[in-house]
Design goal:
alpha/beta; Aspartate Aminotransferase, domain 1; Aspartate Aminotransferase, domain 2; 7-stranded mixed sheet; 4-stranded antiparallel sheet; binds pyridoxal-5'-phosphate
């Protein structure tokens, strides 16, 4: 796969808009995604699933095609098991609040979750009296299976974990986690925000009951996500929102829920983005997720190799590049993460993220104020990585302690 040619599919790369190393937040978009959305707005900007005229029918068909593309991309049989959401967070909230958990029910997460997979459970802890347990992560971010197994008792109803971590980049053995949880009758929810864009995800193999991810990280439209659920799990989940499109028959006193997935998609949907999602999935499939994973690894090896001897730079997580997926979080003695990010941008147009990356408990529990974070994707190349590491070395030498 010629990634250097591929880069040119991205307008911001062609236009020299800077070195973008913030893909864990949001990816750049290729022409095909932008074109698919433009086509919708220019040619058939109607609603789907309601009106029967020709423009609306074209939209309905396109929405169905995106669900089919999702089922094929994630190796499942049923397109109807993919619910469109506005992001991964909405999917995780829909799952958490839809399970009908009661006082005393326990939910296990890891100690390193993104706030999207932490705050909904905290709200349920406060409002419904559920209990929380945290599976501990080792210093390098890896999963402690024995500790996890020891957390189960008869009150555990759900296990909800990230597949790939947004700070350390570590990928968890979610298939084994799901097997253990299922043996103990717990529902398994996977946050795939950082894995779905970067590695092959086979939902049948993982056997997740629910799998949520962000399309804007892979590299689809902004404000777009998906919640996959096994059919029987979706059918047992209580919808959080109700309204147009979610019902069959309605009287003044009652309503019949529409079949899944419609019952979870209240009101008019984000059709342009749903259509752009199919273009993004086809784009990724054309490259091959294995190839993308290998490309990420090559860039991470280069990045970590280049930074190895920067004496005042500290990496969060493993010292092994392959364990970082596409993410490198780091600190430089004497500098605040935001200062590092602003200097990299103003000196060389290098865009990285800084702060706590919506993973506050991770940082607070380790008494770390935050970190800088560089994240790579398929459009980055070795020259960009070298420019980034040269700049970071310079910042560390001149401004660090
Ligand atoms: C691991 C993880 N989970 C969830 C999210 C939230 O994704 P979204 O902003 O699409 O809701 C992110 C975003 O960075 C993430 O990294």
């Amino acid at each position: 796969m010629d990634f250097d040619t591929l880069r040119m599919d991205f307008p911001t790369v062609r236009n020299g808009a800077g070195i973008y190393l913030d893909s864990a937040c949001q990816a750049l978009r290729p022409d095909c995604v932008i074109r698919a959305m433009d086509e919708y707005y220019g040619d058939y900007p109607a609603c789907g699933g309601r009106s029967v005229h020709s423009m609306a029918s074209r939209v309905s068909l396109a929405v169905d095609e995106t669900r089919e593309a999702l089922a094929s991309f994630f190796g499942t049989d049923e397109p109807g098991c993919y619910v469109f959401t506005k992001n991964c967070t909405e999917g995780l909230n829909t799952a958490a609040f839809g399970l009908g958990l009661k006082k005393g029910d326990t939910v296990i997460t890891t100690d390193s979750e993104h706030n999207s997979n932490h705050i909904p459970w905290l709200i349920l802890q406060e409002n419904a009296g559920i209990r929380r347990k945290y599976s501990r992560s080792a210093e390098d971010g890896s999963f402690d299976m024995e500790f996890f197994k020891g957390l189960f008792d008869s009150s555990v109803r759900a296990v909800s974990v990230q597949q790939s971590n947004s700070v350390t980049g570590q990928t968890l053995p979610v298939r084994e986690i799901a097997e253990i949880a299922h043996d103990r009758n717990a529902v398994v929810i996977i946050d795939g925000a950082q894995s779905a864009p970067h590695i092959p995800v086979d939902l049948k193999k993982i056997d997740a009951d629910i799998f949520c991810f962000s399309v804007h990280k892979m590299p689809g439209p902004s404000g777009m996500g998906v919640m996959y659920g096994k059919k029987e799990v979706l059918e047992s989940l209580n919808p959080v929102f109700g309204g147009g499109g979610t019902v069959g028959l309605v009287t003044y006193d009652s309503f019949t829920p529409a079949p899944v997935p419609d019952r979870f998609e209240a009101g008019l949907q984000n059709y342009a983005d749903i259509i752009g999602t199919k273009a993004a999935l086809e784009y990724l499939s054309g490259i091959g997720m294995d190839n993308i994973g290998k490309h990420d690894s090559e860039l991470m090896r280069r990045m970590m190799g280049n930074l190895e001897d920067v004496r005042n730079l500290h990496i969060l997580g493993s010292s092994v590049p392959e364990k970082h997926g596409s993410i490198l979080s780091f600190n430089i003695d004497g500098l605040k993460p935001h200062d590092i990010a602003m200097m990299a941008d103003s000196m060389k147009g290098i865009m990285i993220r800084s702060g706590m990356h919506c993973s506050h408990p991770f940082y607070v529990s380790r008494h770390i104020g935050g970190s800088a974070r560089a994240s790579v994707y398929l459009y980055n190349n070795i020259a960009e990585i070298d420019a980034f590491t040269d700049t970071i070395r310079h910042i560390a030498d001149v401004f660090g302690e």
